[in-house]
Design a protein that fits this description.
Layout: H1 9-16, H2 20-28, E1 36-37, E2 44-45, H3 48-57, H4 64-72
Antiparallel strand pairs: 1-2
Length: 74
């Protein structure tokens, strides 16, 4: 069985384009991607596929109104 690749909080934050401090805050309020906490050390880590899926699911899409506004500005 191969070992699961894990990211540090800094690596996850880098992937999301946010600071580690923001990711720490999200964790404390129950926002952001799921994470793992080692029961003994308390070390936090992230599964890359979970972080990427969360990022994709939370992308903001432009609305037609926004696109319309952009087209009027020339």
């Amino acid at each position: 069985m191969s070992e699961l690749e894990l990211w540090s909080p800094q690596e996850a934050a880098d992937c999301l384009g946010r600071s580690k401090k923001t990711l720490d805050k999200w964790r404390s309020i129950g926002r952001g991607p799921a994470y793992l906490r080692d029961a003994v050390s308390g070390h936090i880590s992230y599964v890359p596929d979970v972080v990427l899926a969360w990022k994709k699911a939370n992308l903001q899409r432009r609305t037609e109104t926004m696109l319309g506004d952009c087209r009027r500005i020339k």
